[in-house]
From TrEMBL:
Gene label: panE_4
Protein name: 2-dehydropantoate 2-reductase
SUPFAM superfamilies reported in the protein's UniProt record: 6-phosphogluconate dehydrogenase C-terminal domain-like (SSF48179), NAD(P)-binding Rossmann-fold domains (SSF51735)
Ketopantoate reductase N-terminal domain sequence ranges: 4-153
Any Pfam family the entry gives: ApbA_C
Originating species: Staphylococcus gallinarum
E.C. numbers: 1.1.1.169
GO cellular component: cytoplasm
Length: 310
């Protein structure tokens, strides 16, 4: 049986870790938050769902203390913490020649950063529609259902992809192999590049943002720049499909009453993933000779807000 680590065991890492553990897999949670790790090891990871509050026994360890080697490391830090987390794990000898890294974070360019540590053939990119929340250290809030699409970062097929699909599906995580995970990642990143920063800057939930009759005029320049940058990288995005995806979230019956994760991070005094969304579009644009003024101003606006936190 594979030895699995969840590197970054916050809300989403906790969700995936608990599902795998409950399906009988050998899972260790790795995190930098002392109180979280202490509570998990002392009281179990508290899991609140629509039905019940339970406690799951699952080993957790601080990243600075980990020494064992893993077969699979699922990365669910925030995007800006992934490189330092993996560097720490590499120094500690946790990453062997056969260790596979599964990136399930939101945002763009993870394959480029992670390939500084392991070759692309050992990196698997996953995009997930599951959601999760943290009520406090050692306390998960899990609602709704989701899915996971996964593909090797060099787009080649292999047996490990089958193994990880089996593992995720044994854990009820509704996973499937993707033929074009980059398109799914870029589509999700486009939705996030619109709703996350705009709701944060405006201090609105998704319904309130969508309720403004000219919201489409605000969205289109952001989307069009992303489509142009994506096309230059051979990723084919469709404006109509993206607009439909974004506008489908406005209803109070779907995600309308939610504040996007960036709003929650900013409100809780934490830095945001802006540099891996709109900011990544700006830097790809610069390296491709494409201007991305709408995404640039959005990135600056969020950085301006973050000066209060830094
Ligand atoms: P998270 O903030 O819950 O956890 C990320 C890291 O931050 C963890 O190491 C966690 O321990 C730490 N952390 C959280 N609160 C802390 C606090 N108060 N003090 C100290 N450390 C703290 O992030 P997440 O929601 O699990 O997101 C991880 C990745 O998954 C991100 O790239 C995110 O965009 C993506 N993602 C999240 C969801 C979701 O619904 N949560 C859904 C899809 C993708």
């Amino acid at each position: 049986m594979y030895k699995v680590a969840i590197a970054g065991a916050g809300a989403m890492g906790g969700r995936i870790g608990v599902a795998l553990k409950q399906a009988g897999y050998n899972v260790t949670l790795i995190d930098n938050w002392k109180e979280h790790v202490y509570n998990i090891n002392t009281y179990g990871l508290e899991v609140e769902t629509e039905e019940a509050v339970t406690s799951v026994n699952i080993p957790a360890i601080l990243a600075k203390d980990v020494t064992m080697k893993f077969d699979v490391i699922i990365v669910l830090t925030k995007a800006m913490e992934s490189e330092s987390m993996l560097e720490k794990l590499q120094e500690a000898g946790c990453i062997g020649n056969d260790t596979r890294i599964v990136s399930m974070m939101n945002g763009l360019g993870h394959e480029e950063r992670l390939s500084k540590i392991v070759p692309l053939s050992k990196i698997y990119l996953a995009v997930t529609m599951w959601t999760a929340g943290l009520k406090g250290p050692g306390q998960l809030l899990l609602e709704g259902t989701g899915s996971i699409d996964i593909q090797r970062a060099d787009r080649k097929k292999d047996l490990f992809t089958e193994d990880i699909l089996k593992m995720f599906n044994d854990a009820g995580l509704n996973a499937k192999a993707s033929d074009d995970v980059f398109k799914s990642i870029w589509s999700k990143a486009t939705v996030n590049s619109v709703l996350n920063p705009l709701c944060t800057i405006l201090d609105k939930n998704i319904f309130e943002f969508g309720n403004y009759e000219k919201s489409r005029e605000m969205i289109i320049p952001i989307i069009d720049e992303i489509i142009t940058v994506a096309a230059a990288k051979d990723i084919d995005l469709n404006r109509k499909e993206l607009l439909e995806k974004i506008e489908a979230t406005y209803s109070k019956a779907t995600q309308g009453l939610h504040y996007p994760s960036m709003h929650q991070d900013y409100s809780n005094g934490r830095l945001t993933e802006i540099d891996y969304l709109n900011g990544q579009i700006v830097s790809y644009g610069e390296s491709l000779g494409l201007t991305t003024p709408a995404n640039k101003i959005i990135t600056h606006l969020i950085h301006q807000l973050e000066t209060k936190i830094r």
